[in-house]
Amino acid sequence: MTHVVVLGAGLGGIAAAYDLRAALDKDHRITVVGDGPYFNFTPSNPWIAVGWRKPEQIRVSLEGPLGKQGIAFKSVPAQSVQPDNKRLVLVDGEVIDYDYLVITSGPRLAFDEVTGLGPNGGFTHSICTGPHAEHAWEAYQTFLSHPGPVVVGAVQGASCYGPAYEFAMIVDADLRRRKLRDLVPLTFVTAEPYIGHMGLGGIGDSRGMLEAALRQRDIRWIANAKVTSIDAHVIKVDEMDDQGHVHRSHELPHAYTMFIPAFTGVPALRGVEGLTNPRGFVVIDKHQRNPTFPQVFAAGVCVAIPPVEATPVPTGAPKTGFMIESMVGAIVANIKSDVEGRPAEAEATWNAVCLADMGDTGAAFVALPQMPPRNVVWVKEGKWVRLAKAAFEKYFLNKVRTGNTHPVIETYVLKLLGIRSLKGERTAK
Predict the structure, then answer these.
(1) What letter would DSSP give residue 57?
(2) Which of 255, 305, 352, 411 has its CA 20 to 30 A from that of 84?
């Protein structure tokens, strides 16, 4: 009897667990190890931070839904991964042996890499986790009674830029609704070499579209930005030139700030020889498999992906939702093949689909594949995108509750768009 352990209970981990349950015979065991009892729909965190959603609307208690599918659940974080012995040690001392390990742990948030960054002991807020978004909403309510300058963005080394753009425009829309926008200068600060780079060298005309969107909303921006320090009142930023030299220094007053930090691998993974790179991200081959430990697979933000290109200020490549599902699809196919004694040959397409709320409208980004050169690239803007994102939120939460990770509507809509999870799949004609 095979035991597959999934480390991480986020978007990738839950999809992996349900897909593995569907792919493998019932006599094979599956265990999910999560950092707490809930699944949180991370793409909705920007809405939590301005009060447009309540926490209970975007989270699901996992024990019941996983149990109904015959999946064991441990809501205790991992302390260490020991691939030499094929075991996982939890922080409470429990040891879990595995035949296959699927790592979907997400990142460690590296607030410590910039002085004053972060909600715990720093002076900025975060929307990277559910608790961080809730804390950001508490602080935002206090801010509303004493409005002042707002700064939003992503610091050097960040690899997740979409939520920063979303949050800047959501805050703008929320302040307009409250008739407070005229009291709040809003600045967008990003490590990207230009607006709309997204860590991907741009997607279609993302630069022109996002620059116009910021300009329309009276949001000034600083690109090629290196945040050097943050205190309770001032953010110090060096704006770099194309050669990586300081072009101009800024001191930005702030009353409320949200920055996306750089990511590293989680502590349980860091320093494991052959498993991770120096930043703690899991090294994988084209089949999502670790070359040193072939029983270990990985998907999502925890995966080591080199930057698309060198930039004056360090930027990372994002791992978007559908890209993660694509990785998960390859992992499940490969574990099933390995269990059945066949070669594990499935490869993910790493196609990217992103729906971004822009406060009063939205933007859809499609890059097939995510990493250039690409076969298909398009960007579209409209109110329909906001509606689509809200619909996707509800439908994905329903998937988590029911265990149906590939409803018919999703499968056929993606095929009609020519978007595939695995290389070699046929698209609908």
Answers:
(1) G
(2) 305
The answer to whether residue 414 scores a pLDDT higher than 90 is no
C-beta separation of 195 from 225 below 8 A:
no
Compute the half-sphere exposure of residue 309: CA atoms within 13 Å on the CB side of its CA. 13
Residues designated catalytic: 160, 354
CA–CA distances in Å: residue 313 to residues 167, 223, 320:
22, 9, 22
Q: Residue 408: its pLDDT value, please?
A: 42
Tens-digit pLDDT profile for residues 145-161:
999 999 999 999 999 99
Residues in the chain: 429
pTM > 0.85: yes or no = yes
Distances in Å between the alpha carbon of 338 and those of 103, 117, 308, 335, 345? 17, 44, 32, 5, 10
Per-residue pLDDT, averaged over 269-297, amounts to 97
Burial 296-314 (b: 16+ CB within 10 A, else e): bbbbbbbbbbeebeebbbb
Distance CA 47, CA 256 (A): 16
Which among 69, 17, 15, 65 is positioned nearest to 37, based on CA atoms? 65
